[in-house]
């Protein structure tokens, strides 16, 4: 049969109208059904992880099936971040390296309630090559010495992600300076703690953070130098801060020019040197600084390189997550290793309809048209909800076609040939999925997901609608994001793949919680990671380090994650629980808070939720941030009168409606009766990293939430 491309399909449909559509559907669907009857069967699974005997505490251990020996470097000689970056720049001299969109104009729009919102008019991406970026890195490193930075002291980066963040990061390594990374959303107390604990002397920041630093300057005695990123507001902020501070304040450009005019010899690190002290926003108390060696970060990058198919300098990566988070730092290190282009954006300018994008301006994804991107589950959940809402609004033939296409693809992707195949795939792409894929630029071929568990429904939705596999990763700051990673040809959901080739993963029985490695049909236990990606421990916190890091008799370092997992027959890991999230109720039942929250998030009324269980009661309760749009649409349809969203959240009718939706979601997920919140409280304001109630990866900060809403929780138990 002559091959028919997608453009031919489109022309057939256009030429024959509705009859062409119906005919094409019949033709394209019948063929795979007939073939399914003839061929039958499902795709066979292959081993992805294999059991291995490793030292230390007894447990059930696995390694990646691809490599009997742990991977530590992407190629010989690239043992540190400095050497890896320099060699990659030489390999890919003229390839696109870092890209930034040109800011054309800023506008402010006034909402009906009087609040003003900033809207950005952004232009095309402006690129610098690997060769140009390497020169800037060397200039910055030399400039550091010229402004008087003591190479025996640490430096910190306190900013949103941007090209200069990565240039500064690599520049510090040219002089073997340890970098302290801090979330831009961190509160004052945590910021002061992080900078003082590590005795940072040079701080790199953006203009927004300059204002924050001015207010706490008297609490930062070790700071000597401030380097700010150049933008339209930074010069004024810098001159204002100069008057109230003893700091030496320089612009990023000034440091680069100084270095270019006064080149200095590099002082390169070795593999075991500490590259980064990464402060996590943490779910409890003050943040802890995780010490990552150059070897740790390089090992994770080298391992992930083996998982992403055919990654290279033709790829474009959309960078918008915080570089101070290990997930994004690891992802961008992988891109630099591969010679891919990194185009910077932000979560607020990501798509054409993002909050900060001026109407008529393209979002970052539309402008960049990336082939690779990373995402945390909350972002993918929003994409899914947005698409489904649009489909519902269209209704009619559009909704029917979408549902047919989705079901056909779902059958195919789950492993049966009795689904969308060949010509039918081209048809559904032309009719349904092409427009959806344009939301993220249209060229995505692989997505990395991490930072928190991704629901199976959302993973499958993105697989089908974006036409790209999702590499769902599992890792922690303490393992440099390197632990497990699902492979491109693995169509299962809910799992995080086999161990990366840079580490081993073993399960250790947790008898108290009822999880053991002898469980049938699959071994279960606490997830413990060992190998090249396991970090050196917590800075200035030996007690906590000794609690969760162990070294076996062979010298291998292991990290005890506190997560509960199980290994599937093919060697893939599934995270099923977390020690800290399990609460025993008054009558002895165990409630896994994270599991219940994940199930209830499927309700259309829920934007965020925290389930709370008290050992002195026999039921659990929940704090719910409702989806404003969904709740207001329901209220208007139901004739509920209210003045503002806060008043709506207080209404008994609204609480009852949300409660019923939670019960429905719980039944769908087959939760036990005691796991379903008996009472709920609706909160009108969203939980953001800036509010201190969720981490940068949008994980709940339970202790902070419990403290802030102590009164509301107490009322729920009365």
UniProtKB/TrEMBL annotation:
A GO molecular function held by the record = long-chain fatty acid-CoA ligase activity
> Could you state one GO cellular component term attached to this entry?
membrane
Residues covered by the AMP-dependent synthetase/ligase domain: 119-539
> What Gene3D superfamilies would the database entry show?
3.30.300.30, N-terminal domain of ligase-like
Query: One biological-process term from Gene Ontology?
Result: phenylpropanoid metabolic process
Which chain regions cross the lipid bilayer? 18-39
Domain of life, source organism: Eukaryota
Keyword tags: Membrane, Phenylpropanoid metabolism, Transmembrane, Transmembrane helix
Q: Which Pfam families match?
A: AMP-binding
Q: Which reaction does it catalyse?
A: a long-chain fatty acid + ATP + CoA = a long-chain fatty acyl-CoA + AMP + diphosphate
Give the protein's recorded name.
AMP-dependent synthetase/ligase domain-containing protein
């Amino acid at each position: 049969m002559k091959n028919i491309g997608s453009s031919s399909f489109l022309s057939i449909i256009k030429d024959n109208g509705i009859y062409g559509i119906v005919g094409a559907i019949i033709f394209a669907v019948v063929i795979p059904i007939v073939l399914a009857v003839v061929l039958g069967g499902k795709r066979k699974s292959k081993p992805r992880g294999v059991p291995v005997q490793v030292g230390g505490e007894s447990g059930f251990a696995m390694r990646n099936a691809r490599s009997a020996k742990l991977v530590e470097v992407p190629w010989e000689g690239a043992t540190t971040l400095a050497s890896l970056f320099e060699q990659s720049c030489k390999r890919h001299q003229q390839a696109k390296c870092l890209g930034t969109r040109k800011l054309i104009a800023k506008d402010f729009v006034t909402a009906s309630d009087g609040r003003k919102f900033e809207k950005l008019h952004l232009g095309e991406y402006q690129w610098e090559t690997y060769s140009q970026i390497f020169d800037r890195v060397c200039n910055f490193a030399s400039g550091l010495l010229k402004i008087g930075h003591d190479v025996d002291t640490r430096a910190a980066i306190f900013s949103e992600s941007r090209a200069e963040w990565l240039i500064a990061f690599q520049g510090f390594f040219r002089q073997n300076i340890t970098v302290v990374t801090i979330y831009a959303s961190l509160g004052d107390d945590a910021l002061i703690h992080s900078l003082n604990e590590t005795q940072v002397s040079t701080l790199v920041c953006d203009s927004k953070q300059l204002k924050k630093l001015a207010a706490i300057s008297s609490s930062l005695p070790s700071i000597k130098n401030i380097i700010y990123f150049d933008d339209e507001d930074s010069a004024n902020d810098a001159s204002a801060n100069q008057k109230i501070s003893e700091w030496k304040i320089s612009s990023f450009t000034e440091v680069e020019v100084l270095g270019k005019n006064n080149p200095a010899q590099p002082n390169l690190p070795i593999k075991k040197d500490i590259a980064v002290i990464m402060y996590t926003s943490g779910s409890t108390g003050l943040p802890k600084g995780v010490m990552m060696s150059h070897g740790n970060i390089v090992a994770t990058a080298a391992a992930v390189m083996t998982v992403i198919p055919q990654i290279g300098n033709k790829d474009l990566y959309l960078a918008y997550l915080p570089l101070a988070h290990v997930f994004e730092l690891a992802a961008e290190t992988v891109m630099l290793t591969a010679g891919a282009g990194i185009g910077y954006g932000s979560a607020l300018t990501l798509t054409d309809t993002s909050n900060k994008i001026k109407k008529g301006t393209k979002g970052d994804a539309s402008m960049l048209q990336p082939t690779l991107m990373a995402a945390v589950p909350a972002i993918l959940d929003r994409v899914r909800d947005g698409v489904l809402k649009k489909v519902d609004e269209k209704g009619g033939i559009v909704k029917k076609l979408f549902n047919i296409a989705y079901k056909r693809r779902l059958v195919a992707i789950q492993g049966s040939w009795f689904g969308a195949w060949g010509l039918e795939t081209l048809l559904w792409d032309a009719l349904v999925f092409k427009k959806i894929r344009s939301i993220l630029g249209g060229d995505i071929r692989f997505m990395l997901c991490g930072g928190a568990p991704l629901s199976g429904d959302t993973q499958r939705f993105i697989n089908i609608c974006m036409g790209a596999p999702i590499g769902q990763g599992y890792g922690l700051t303490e393992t440099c994001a390197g632990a497990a990673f699902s492979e491109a040809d693995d169509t299962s959901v809910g799992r995080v793949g086999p161990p990366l080739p840079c580490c081993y993963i073993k399960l250790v029985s947790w008898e108290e919680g009822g999880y053991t490695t002898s469980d049938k049909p699959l071994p279960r236990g606490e997830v413990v990671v060992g190998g090249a990606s396991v970090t050196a421990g917590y800075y200035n916190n030996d007690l906590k380090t000794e609690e969760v890091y162990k070294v076996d008799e062979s010298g291998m370092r292991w990290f005890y994650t506190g997560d509960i997992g199980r290994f599937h027959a093919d060697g893939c890991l599934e995270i099923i629980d977390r020690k800290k999230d399990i609460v025993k109720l008054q009558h002895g039942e165990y409630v896994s808070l994270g599991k219940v929250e994940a199930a209830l998030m499927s309700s259309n009324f829920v934007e965020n939720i925290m389930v709370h269980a008290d050992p002195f009661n026999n039921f659990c309760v929940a704090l719910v941030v409702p989806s404003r749009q969904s709740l207001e649409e329901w209220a208007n349809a139901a004739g509920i009168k209210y003045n503002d969203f806060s008043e709506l959240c207080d209404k008994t009718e609204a609480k009852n409606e949300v409660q019923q939706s939670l019960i429905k979601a719980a039944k769908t997920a087959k939760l036990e009766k005691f796991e379903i919140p008996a009472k709920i409280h609706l909160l009108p304001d969203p939980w953001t990293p800036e509010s201190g109630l969720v981490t940068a990866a949008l994980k709940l900060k339970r202790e902070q939430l419990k403290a802030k809403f102590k009164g509301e929780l107490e009322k729920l138990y009365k």
